[in-house]
Each structure stands twice: as C-alpha cells, then as structure tokens.
C-alpha cells in the first residue's frame, strides 16, 4: 500500500474537475477539499476544454444525468484523454435503470475511463452478470468470491481499474486484486458517500504518477478508515452527524492512523 | 392515528422518486434515507417511465422549476397514475409567484396528485382565497378555523388529501380533518424542512395500502415531533445544528416516542 | 461602520433573489436565512420579472454557469435595475477560466451590478492585472497595497462597490477604501463561504437605503467576525463542523459582538 500518497495529496492540492450528481455535489466538493484537493464542478460545454487543461484529474458521476450531461460526460472523458488527465467514472444506478446502463456502456466503449467505481450491482451489470440489486443502494452481502470475479471481468473488459465498494472494498485490474476491510455501515445510510469516494479516488489518481491501481486502493483505505474512526470515537452517532464528522476526519487523517488501523490484504 | 405505519416504513425501505427543489435536495434525500426510505432524484425524461415503475411513491416539488421541470413534473404524475404509485405535490411559492400558480393549477387539473402539501398561503391560492403570505415562508398565525376551511375546500376541489403546515399541521380530505400540534419554530429558520416533509409524506404513503389520509397524518406527526424532541433535548440549538439533529432524530424516532409525546386530535 | 444595519436586517427580513452556484446553494440559502433574510433561488426565465419585483435585493453567482444561466443572469441584473433593487455579482472563477472572464466583462458592461465581490485573482482579472491565482481559491497573501489598487481600479472602471476578500477584506469605491481584519483560515477549506458572503452582502444592501459601501463593509465584518468567533470558541473544529457553527453564529451574532470584537479601519 503506497501510504505516502496521502502526504502527496495534502501537499499537491490537486484540482479535481467534476460532472457531479446534483444531489450530493456539496458533500463531494467538501470531501475533495477536506482531503486536500481543490474541487471544481462544471455543467458548461464551452468551458470544458479550458478547465480540463487546468485540472489534475476528472470525475464523471451520472447520479442525476440528463441529455445535456450525457453529452458533457462524453466530452469531459475525451478532453481528459487528450490532456492525459486521470479519469474516474461513477455509474450510479446502472444496476437498476436500463437507460443508464445503455448510456454507460456506450460511454465506456467510446471513451474508457481510467477507473470505474460502483457497487456490486452496478459493476455486475457492466459485465452482463445478473445481481440482485435494489435501486442504487450498495450491496453488503458476503459474496467476496463472486465480487472478485465481477471486478476482474470488468477490469479485463474495459482495461481499466475497477473498484467495487461494499462491506469490503475490492480493487482490481485484469491481473491484480486487493481488498480493504475497514468501514462502517453508516456509509449506507448517509446519501452520497459513494459519490464522495469516487471523487476522492480522482484526488489520489491525480498525484499517483499514473499508478491508478495504487491510487484507488489508497483512496478506499483512507475513506473507509475515516468512517470507521468516526464510529470508533462516537459509536451512537446518527447519519447526519456521521457525515459531518467524516468530512472533519478526512481533513485530519494521517499516515500514522493508516499504519495503525488500516485493514487490507495487499 | 396509525402509529404502526412507522414500523412498516423502517422495514419496507420504500423507494421514493423525486423531482426535487435543487436547493434542498440533499437534505430531502437524507431525510428520506434517515426515516427508512430510499431516495432517487431525477431530471431525465428518458428514464421517468422505468424508474416510476420501480418506485414505491413519487414526490414533485416545484421549488426550482423551469420549462424542463414543468414537463417532467407532468410526465411523472402521469406515470405515477399509470403504475398506481402514490404521488405527493409540493407547490412551493404559488402563494407569491403568479407564474407558479398558473402552472400548478394546470398540473392539478391534468394529473391530480394524491396528496398536496403546502403552507396556508400556497393552499389558499389553489382555492382562490387571498392570504397574506410573504414569499415562500410558512405562516404561523393562529387562524386555525380559516385554515380548516382552506384545507377542506382544496381537498374537495381536487379530490385529494391536503396538508397545510404551520405552527399546527392540518390534514384534510373532503370530509375528514385532523391536526398535529407538535413542532418547533426552528422549522421556519432552516431552509427546506417543508420540502423534506413532503417527501416523507411520500415515504408513508408508499406503505399505507392506499390510505393516504392516515399516511399524511403520521408523516406530519413523526416529522413535527422529531423537531420538537430535538428542541427538548438541546433548547439553544441553532438552525444548522437543528437540521443535523433533526435528521438523526428521524433515524431513531420510534413508536414509543410517538405514544409518549405525540399531540394530535384524531 | 454602520453597526445598526445588523438590527435592520434582523427586523426587515429582506427577500434575496439568487441565481446561485448549484454546488453551494443550500449553504447560501441557509446563510441568508440565518442572518435574517429570506432566500429565493431561481432558474426560470418566465418568473424572473415577477420575483425581482417582490425581492429586496438580488445576487448573481456564476460558480456553475452555462448557456441558460448566462442569459438569466443578464436578465436578472436588467430587471433589478428596472425595479431599483440592489444587485451583487460574484464572478466565481474568472481569474482562471477565460470563458468566464469574457462572459463577465460583457455582463458588467451591459448591466453593471451595484456591488462585485471576488478574491484578488478574480477582481484583478476584471481590470486586466495579472495575478497568480490558482483556480477559484481565494488568495491570502499579504499584498494589501496592491489589492487596494486593484479594488479601487475595478470600482472606478465599473462605478460600483468592489469587495476583495482574503485574509483581510478590502471594500472600495472609486474614492473610499476600508479593511476588515477579522476572519479565520477555515473559510478557505469550507467550500462556498465566499458564495455565502456575496448573498449576505445582498441582505445588507437590501436594508441600506442605497448606501452599498456601508452595506458591503458591514456584511464582511459580520461574516468574518462570525467565523472568527467560531474558532475562538472551538479552536480545533474541522471544516464541516465549522460550517455548521458558522451558520448558527450568523443566527445569533449581535451588535455587542461587533462592538467588542470587530477589527476594521474605518
């Protein structure tokens, strides 16, 4: 685990350009800022090229897509490739909504992102595996083996890093796999924690010198552990106080915390 | 009062589809999640049919409407009727903005929602009664009698359940009426608490087996009481801390709290 | 310093109409409400005229502009002039994004706002001075002299009040200048505090009887001091808890706090 990436994030203050889920964009922007990045959200075709050039990584979240955002998302991934900026895709809801799945399959074929993060149902649907997902919620069943298969298949199919989040987070390329087992079930009650993680993966990718697998692992570890530390300190916290404390934990979490409490297999 | 509906909400985890007020949608989504539902917000015409079929209830809020959202709102209410999903309408600002009132009157004639929730000024304007409303704020004058009339008239006119919120909440059908007197004046300082209640009414409607009057009563009771319990525990809380504690109270509020502290006349 | 304006805000409850940054609009709306105003956000061309007439001041923020919002922003400033409502412009990101700068220059020439608020990089770019700005972040270097020049030049050029925020806030007209030195560096970590201040300037402008220079000074003082008081009371607070406490401080801040702790030169 490249734990020192956390220090790089805090020093480099990378700018992350997002096409965001409008519901959760305030939390996402504040998550990026708390961990040490600088957030920018856009909905404007005319500025996409200029600001992609300035950005250090990009993240596309389709939580509240529509016709306009579809076009923008495609354009943003295209510009990211042109300017060699790392890109993360969060395919919110494709496990449940067929219109979203067909859009994302088309998107991934035209402009493959460097990293895809979703829950098991979302990633499964990208490789045509049926998975009992309810809406856009994450799945926390104990099917680690099958999740490994899904993650690897998806990484192989799109030749990118794949992150499947749940009770355990699984990070895969076509030939490597890693698991993070920190976390808290409060992540499933507070809306938008997955969106926040996707953009935080972009933050780590921005300072990773192209090693997106290590970036994704560290982002999941830092994020899951931060939630776990909140619950350790305030076990009876509700979902809203959890969210606030999570942001403040992301602001202070450090290399020592990770060395002491991090649970990962590789 | 069908207090057991609260248990049903917590077990059934109904999915609530929203056309949301963009300003308050994060609070609304987290309110739905805290009480036990699963929120989904949409702005996309192409997915409306698919996701209405999956949803257990829908809520239309016109707090930040525009041409696009007008069309979507009409379409969502139409699909909700087609698939027999309960629908809630929050006609934000129609007491003050004539363009909103004319849109909502047209909407209600074409696709009447099952439940309408607003403040006295908003509901009064739907039945052409003049009411001194300032902008979109709720009215907390002590005009219970006239509010009863307004609520009943509106329920009669549109043949739906009508909820008028204020210091006292009034829930009416054309022939029944009920009042909730729990609450806190902090609801008027924190932006979006009305929007949150409208979507929480949809949560209760989703598990009510078609009894929308009882669903609306319970939603108002649970919501108003949760705010009151926050103030009881932390009397000097400011509006932002109130909002966070309200969400956390919605997460833990239970049947015993309601039996002990609920104030309602029927 | 016209400290009594704070009391006027709390009594008058002015309605502030915003074209908002979609990322931060919830915080902004709650900031307006906490200090004593009544927020309204719009994205709808058809209602602009009606609601500008009702509003007591308007604020245009271009943090998430697009083609539609560009047109709306121009129209809102036009209507504000027509109905003599004070107007504030927050030119987010123009120091870094050329497409935004050219839009704002055009906007300011066609419909000059009464007050412009930005960081040093943004205001510098309006008067064609180069300034090392990174993205949309505020600059807290100690270049008070050159900031004075930039602020005055901009105020002269557009004949309006100019506010440059940073470690010290600078408020200028073409012939007057004033500085506020309260504050906290947590303002730079929490996303959207600048947006919140811009709308709070509109709140004070709404009750200032046309004295926008005094309104801007008081808004900066109240806002900066509120942040400072939060840090004084809870020195180790993280950015999310800071944000919540800031809103609650804005709700309770009073004339005595300002007399006791305010730091300003005029």
TrEMBL record, chains A, B, C:
Stated EC number for the protein is 2.7.1.50
This protein's pathway reads: Cofactor biosynthesis; thiamine diphosphate biosynthesis; 4-methyl-5-(2-phosphoethyl)-thiazole from 5-(2-hydroxyethyl)-4-methylthiazole: step 1/1
Classification via InterPro entries: Hyethyz_kinase (IPR000417), Ribokinase-like (IPR029056)
Q: Superkingdom, according to UniProt?
A: Bacteria
Q: Which reaction is this enzyme known to catalyze?
A: 5-(2-hydroxyethyl)-4-methylthiazole + ATP = 4-methyl-5-(2-phosphooxyethyl)-thiazole + ADP + H(+)
The UniProt entry, under Pfam families, shows: HK (PF02110)
Where along the chain is substrate bound?
Answer: 41, 192
Q: Name the SUPFAM superfamilies on file.
A: Ribokinase-like
Q: Which cofactor does it need?
A: Mg(2+)
Q: Give me the residues that bind ATP, please.
A: 117, 165
Question: Which Gene Ontology terms cover its molecular function?
Answer: hydroxyethylthiazole kinase activity
Coiled-coil ranges (or none) = none
UniProt-listed CDD domains: THZ_kinase
Q: What is the top EC class of this enzyme, as a single word?
A: transferase
Q: Mind listing the UniProt keywords for this protein, alphabetically?
A: ATP-binding, Kinase, Magnesium, Metal-binding, Nucleotide-binding, Thiamine biosynthesis, Transferase
Q: Which family does it belong to?
A: Belongs to the Thz kinase family.
Record function comment: Catalyzes the phosphorylation of the hydroxyl group of 4-methyl-5-beta-hydroxyethylthiazole (THZ).
Query: What name has this protein been given in UniProt?
Result: Hydroxyethylthiazole kinase
Output the lineage of the source organism: Bacteria, Bacillati, Bacillota, Bacilli, Lactobacillales
The encoding gene: thiM
